[in-house]
Write a structure and sequence with these properties.
This protein is mainly α. The protein is built from 22 helices and no strands. Helix 1 packs antiparallel against helix 11. Its main location: membrane.
Amino acid sequence: MSKSVLPEPSSSPPPATTSDRRRVAFATVVGTTVEWYDFFIYASAAALVFDQLFFAGLGANSTLVAFVTVGVSFLFRPLGAFLAGHFGDRYGRRRVLVLTLILMGAATTLVGVLPTFDQIGIAAPLLLILLRIVQGVSAGGEWGGAVLMAVEHAPPKRRGLYGASPQIGVPLGLLLASGVLALITLVLPDDAFLSWGWRIPFLLSVALIGVGHYVRRRVEESPVFKELAIRRERTRTPLVQLFRRHSGLVLVAALMFAGNNAVGYMTTGGYIQNYATDPQGPLGLDRGPVLWAVTASAATWLLSTWIAGAVSDRIGRRRTYMIGWLAQLAGVLALFPLVNTGDIGLLTLGLMILTIGLGLTYGPQASFYAELFPASIRFSGVSISYAIGAIIGGAFAPTIATALVSATGTTTSVMVYLAGMTVIGLIATLLLRDRTGIPLGPDHESEQAVSPLRFRKP
């Protein structure tokens, strides 16, 4: 690899203490929760109000276009991942995390003050899309840094548990976003919610971003990056090295995440919320109870994610994933039969069953990904694999689901699509070796550089 050739110093950074690890775990939970709250608030609003306020001029296509804007941000996640990976491998994980948090919060707050289509015409949806793109760039850079801060601080036998810290930020962000929206719909009548109430969750991001920024600034840099910096072994061109040596691994890792992400975006992307509450649709349920159902399922998702991270330390990442894919497939097959009953209790049950499998295929991901890539290009590897997987999986999952129902008149087609994505994730997992517990420091770079792909000889 292209690295500097300065002499290697004799000193090494002190190992992370238990207090350091707990502080980092707390900081990654808080930071990723804030980031994903911001991201999911947009998706929920797209499902509930943006079609009426920003895309009303498109008539029957307004809902489809609103969901397209949810997916557009994913196309810019690789840009965020490329930038964050490059600077994170060169200058540190912590700096990138602080920057992405501020960027996401600023974009979210500005959405809360945007004029609507009726006020400024076509400029309204264009500005909305621009801010969503900024969110996508930020989200693309956020995950890799949070994962490495958590996993690289963790003791080898507890990486899965510590690595679950940034992972639970996703269900916590969904729980917070859905809960805030549900409370607002409970307090405000529909006309007030549509007029100005929807803006409140976006404006709340200002306070949340302040908390997240304060917490993240107080944590220490990753010990692995500290040692790379001391040894002057930071790669000058991490992206070039990544794709030159590990392009196949990036693709397989991306497909593994895509299998989870496509299914997860049935709720995080707002599809179920829109499908269940659409007054012109087959169910026409009230907005409030559906949002409370999503909030309950986010709690189940959080719990299963945390448990999966801990379990992966005991039985291995790959084995935990395999159990998760089977559970996720069962959840996919049960989802729409329960949702289509029109009973809010059964809808809640369907979402909760689904999130058990989602948690089992998401909780071990941080540690699994971190153990796949060499230390000097690890930030680039995990960030870009994640971003590409998000494009293949969740980017347009709500849009695809909407188009499938429109074309076939039945949610069975959506079930087949989600089951297919789950099987793709399962196959991708089978193609990877389990590297649970592999040393992560720069002393073991040659061991880490051996391909974990099962169709390549070690």
